[in-house]
Each structure stands twice: as C-alpha cells, then as structure tokens.
Design a protein that fits this description.
Alpha-Beta Plaits, 2 helices, 36% helix, alpha+beta, four-stranded antiparallel β-sheet
C-alpha cells in the first residue's frame, strides 16, 4: 500500500515510528521523505488503508491512499 503524507523530516519519522512499528511491524513500512509527496509504503496483508490512515492521523500527520 502507498500513501501520500506530510511526513517531512527525520523528527517526524521519529514521532511516527513507535506507532507504525506497533501497528504494522518493524521493517514492514518506510517513508520516502526525499519524494515531493513523502510516500509512505506499507507491506501488510492484515491491515486496510483505513487502518494505516487512522494510525498516521493519530500521530498528527496526514495520509492519503494513492
């Protein structure tokens, strides 16, 4: 799954990491902060796009499935 986000920097990633590690699992997600759309990629068969969007929003960031 891929999402357009507003996760801009390593500090943003540090805030998000514990939440996504718990929800998705370590090493099963990544954010390309060099991409203009700040693409979050999630590798999960158990979660829906809504699950990921809700988790990201709980940390104060935005995510939109693409």
């Amino acid at each position: 799954m891929k999402f357009k986000t507003n996760i801009n920097c390593s500090n943003c990633l540090a805030k998000l990491t514990p939440f996504l590690d718990k929800k998705v699992g370590k090493e099963l997600w990544s954010v390309d902060i060099d991409n203009p759309d700040k693409i979050l990629t999630v590798d999960s068969d158990d979660l829906t796009t809504d699950d990921i969007v809700k988790t990201v929003k709980r940390t104060g960031f935005e995510a939109e499935a693409i």
